[in-house]
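ok so i was messing around last nite and threw this chain in just to see what happens. nothing serious, just curious
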Amino acid sequence: MIHELAASTGELINMGWGLKSQTETTALLETRRPINWWAFLIFLILFFVVGALVYLIVWSLTARALVFLAVENGGITQYGDVWLVEQQKRERDRAIEKAQEIKKHGFWRVMWPSVILWIVITALWIWLIWWLTSLA
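result:
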């Protein structure tokens, strides 16, 4: 069972979690929660730069995520921000699938929608900056 706890802890450490404390039957890991880009954008638009700075300061002070692993009932039990671990595992699985798809079909066949979207968004940003500077 200790080997399973070490394997689970190692997997979380490889996903970016930091080991805060560990005993033979428990482990406490910590990381930062992801920033909420929609809230940041809303604060940026509604309260200009000051609101976005306040949001970033509050996020940096309160964005700790903790996961507690324990050996219970013949298995490893997770407590805390388990949703974040599950989200990271889903994202990792999607990245692995995307890499396999690219390897099988080629980069351009798989990634052309993302490349086109990136070009469109970049062009929109350039146009928006040009438009805002031409108003002044």
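not much to say yet. The mean pLDDT is 91.
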